[in-house]
Amino acid sequence: MTDYSDLLYLICAMVLFSVLSLNTAKKFNTLNQQSHRAEAELRALNIAQSEIDRLQWINTFYVIEPFLPQGYIYKDYPIQVTETYGPNDRYTDTFTVHGHSEFIKDRRGTIVYHITIYVVNTSFSPEIFVFLDYFKTIGY
């Protein structure tokens, strides 16, 4: 280094490199958080869909009847569902599953219910939530 201008160029290059490194690290962290959030949303959707699948295959006359109060099938809800994931099931997420069934009509041998499944994960900010609606038609 022959004069102070070389020293100033070196300092500017070091500052520029550190700013670029910080921006890269911040962008990587943001993308990583978005990835974790998307995976948690997918797990919440899978939980809601499995609840809908369970409703599709149950014998409805033993679970839902028009003579019983609304929401009979979900009298014990909300429930907590814990999902494990990652290598060797190292991580866990807890979801709260809310369910509500509403009797819509009973006409000429057909009963119709409107069923709403609501899944919440409060470990993220803002919280993750999924709504699924299902109309169950029963012929008798």
Give a verbal description of the structure:
This protein has 140 residues and is α+β, with helices and mostly antiparallel strands. The chain has helices at 4-57, 60-63; strands spanning 79-85, 91-107, 110-121, 128-139. The chain has a four-stranded antiparallel β-sheet with strand order 1-2-3-4, with helices on one face. The chain is rod-shaped.
Brief characterization of the structure:
The protein is of the alpha+beta class and 140 residues long. Helix content is 41%, strand content 34%. The protein is built from 2 helices and 4 strands, in the order ααββββ.
Brief descriptors of the model:
single chain; 140 residues; alpha+beta; 2 helices; rod-shaped
**What general outline do the C-alpha atoms trace?**
rod-shaped
Give the terminus-to-terminus CA distance.
93 Å
The low-confidence runs, each spanning 5 or more residues with pLDDT under 50, are none
What fraction of residues sit in β-strands?
25-35%
Q: In total, how many beta strands?
A: 4
Order of strands, main sheet, comes to: 1-2-3-4
Task: Name the average pLDDT.
Answer: 81
Structural class: alpha+beta
User: How is the biggest beta sheet arranged?
Assistant: 4 strands, antiparallel
What is the N-to-C succession of helices and strands? HHEEEE
Number of helices: 2
Q: Can you give the helix content as a percent range?
A: 40-55%
